[in-house]
């Protein structure tokens, strides 16, 4: 799908308020509502755009947020990533180049839950050579509003 400025403008507006109606977006952009609806539907159908609710983890009971930096035997990299993707508390997984092979962000309800995950689940995954765990003490920025830079 080829993008133009209208597609980017629709995405910028939805990043600010994902509940904004097609009518409101159309009025802001001075475009027909049908055009905005069509473009939105194309963006969603092509998996370019998702509009979702993002709850605050701490407000809904996830007191422990951690980042795992993993060194993995490359033969097992895909297997480890897929196993971690099945863990409901895992929020983010990425292959990386550099010191670590995988970066994982995980939200847990308690330190005991994190310890259980580390000692019972992660420890049993074949191929993990090293895990560097960092606990997020205070979140300063977590934004999805990066389209303003495009």
UniProtKB/TrEMBL annotation:
It holds the Pfam family AsnC_trans_reg. Keywords: DNA-binding, Transcription, Transcription regulation. One of its GO terms (cellular component) is cytosol. Residues 3-63 form the HTH asnC-type domain. The keyword Transcription regulation applies. One of its GO terms (biological process) is response to amino acid. InterPro entries: AsnC-type_HTH_dom, Dimeric_a/b-barrel, Tscrpt_reg_AsnC-like, Tscrpt_reg_AsnC/Lrp_C, WH-like_DNA-bd_sf, WH_DNA-bd_sf. GO terms for molecular function: sequence-specific DNA binding. This is Transcriptional regulator. It comes from Thermoanaerobacter thermohydrosulfuricus WC1. The lineage of its organism: Bacteria, Bacillati, Bacillota, Clostridia, Thermoanaerobacterales.
């Amino acid at each position: 799908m080829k993008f133009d400025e209208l597609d980017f403008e629709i995405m910028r507006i939805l990043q600010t308020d994902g509940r904004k109606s097609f009518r409101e977006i159309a009025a802001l952009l001075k475009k027909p509502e049908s055009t905005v609806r069509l473009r939105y539907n194309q963006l969603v159908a092509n998996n370019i755009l998702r509009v979702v609710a993002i709850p605050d983890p701490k407000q809904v009971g996830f007191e422990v947020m951690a980042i795992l930096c993993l060194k993995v035997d490359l033969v097992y990299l895909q297997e480890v990533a897929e196993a971690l993707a099945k863990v409901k508390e895992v929020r983010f997984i990425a292959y990386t180049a550099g010191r670590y092979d995988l970066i994982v962000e995980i939200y847990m309800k308690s330190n005991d839950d994190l310890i259980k995950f580390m000692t019972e689940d992660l420890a049993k995954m074949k191929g993990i050579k090293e895990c560097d765990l960092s606990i997020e003490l205070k979140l300063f920025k977590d934004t999805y509003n990066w389209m303003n830079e495009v």
